[in-house]
């Protein structure tokens, strides 16, 4: 993987990646303190890819950026429904009367999540954390602390235009192919332009951190890590000179190398869990094996989901067993010590990147 030497965009400014492709950044109030957003030029105007959170600062920044462009806003494309990507989509679409483009599962997941739980019972959320083995005070804190994301996501438009895997969009005379990734979110849309040698990767492939691959209380038996592995495969076939424009950190080349390192990262976690669970362990007991830092708040929430995704994968591979103890907590134990490939050479050999 090779980072590219573009200057970092300053607040309310854009950086030209190439003619018709602009890069800008919006601030985030998290440990990961920014999101990369992109603008694609067409004859009728500019299409923006992802939006940032619904905050007054982000709205102010967008108005300044759009005011400096030589063409109007033509549409809003959202890679997936997480708040830092979707947050201002509704506001922008309504203000400029332009269409929203998303995949079906992302759009309707956002519509479902926006109101929050309303009057729905929270016992499934509670069971999710109890089964993970969290102490009772943490269970209570996590269930009480879960809020709908409406505070940082503007109202989702009532109509959208569907993005589908393999679909080709004509933007400015250039063909942008939709490549769907799964695991980080249900139906994450990436955009690839073969002529420009550019991939808009969103959160699916990040250069210096691994996207969160999690199983949450809404679908605790999901096999999200398998979904992620399987949807990475097409990206490993892209040419080495493709410029990858991620949602966080810096643009880079050699996407196949990054795919291999991401798979290796998860294989390392899978092997660590197999080693640690030589005797029965709860998910909560497994967390220090995967995360060597103190976990609180949302970091704990995401860590539980990511650990569960790895354990569920091992269960589906029949390398891990699971039983529920008398306290209603799942205990996991290794039933096979067959290890996953440890190094890049093993992963590259015969394209044996993904489990069978």
TrEMBL record:
Pfam families: B_lactamase-like_C, Lactamase_B. Keywords: Hydrolase. The keyword Hydrolase applies. GO terms for molecular function: hydrolase activity. Residues 34-248 form the Metallo-beta-lactamase domain. SMART domains: Lactamase_B. InterPro entries: B_lactamase-like_C, Metallo-B-lactamas, RibonucZ/Hydroxyglut_hydro, Sec-metab_biosynth-thioest, WH-like_DNA-bd_sf. SUPFAM superfamilies: Metallo-hydrolase/oxidoreductase. PANTHER family: ENDORIBONUCLEASE LACTB2, METALLO-BETA-LACTAMASE SUPERFAMILY POTEIN. This is MBL fold metallo-hydrolase.
């Amino acid at each position: 993987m090779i980072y590219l030497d573009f200057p970092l965009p300053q607040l309310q400014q854009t950086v030209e990646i190439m003619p018709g492709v602009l890069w800008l950044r919006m601030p985030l109030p998290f440990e990961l303190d920014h999101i990369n957003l992109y603008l694609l030029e067409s004859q009728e105007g500019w299409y923006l890819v992802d939006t940032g959170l619904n905050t007054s600062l982000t709205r102010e920044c967008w108005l300044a950026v759009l005011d400096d462009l030589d063409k109007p806003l033509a549409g809003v494309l959202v890679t997936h429904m997480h708040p830092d990507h979707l947050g201002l989509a509704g506001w922008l679409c309504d203000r400029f009367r332009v269409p929203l483009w998303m995949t079906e599962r992302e759009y309707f997941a956002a519509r479902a999540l926006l109101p929050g739980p309303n009057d729905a019972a929270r016992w499934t959320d509670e069971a999710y954390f109890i089964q993970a083995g969290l102490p009772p005070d943490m269970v209570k804190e996590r269930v009480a602390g879960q809020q709908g994301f409406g505070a940082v996501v503007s109202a989702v438009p009532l109509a959208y235009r569907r993005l589908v895997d393999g679909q080709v969009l004509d933007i400015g005379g250039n063909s942008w192919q939709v490549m769907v990734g799964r695991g980080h979110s249900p139906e994450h849309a990436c955009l690839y332009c073969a002529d420009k040698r550019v991939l808009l990767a969103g959160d699916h492939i990040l250069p210096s951190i691994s996207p969160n691959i999690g199983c949450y209380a809404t679908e605790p038996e999901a096999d999200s890590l398998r979904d992620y592995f399987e949807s990475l495969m097409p990206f490993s076939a892209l040419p080495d000179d493709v410029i990858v424009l991620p949602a966080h950190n810096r643009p880079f080349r050699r996407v196949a190398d990054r795919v291999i390192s991401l798979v290796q990262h998860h294989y390392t976690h899978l092997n660590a869990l197999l080693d640690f669970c030589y005797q029965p362990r709860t998910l909560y007991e497994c967390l220090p094996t995967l995360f060597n830092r103190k976990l609180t708040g949302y970091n704990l929430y995401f860590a539980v989901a990511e650990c569960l995704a790895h354990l569920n994968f091992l269960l589906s591979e029949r390398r891990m067993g699971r039983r529920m103890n008398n306290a209603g907590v799942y205990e996991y134990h290794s039933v096979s010590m067959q290890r996953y490939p440890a190094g890049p050479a093993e992963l590259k050999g015969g394209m044996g990147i993904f489990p069978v």
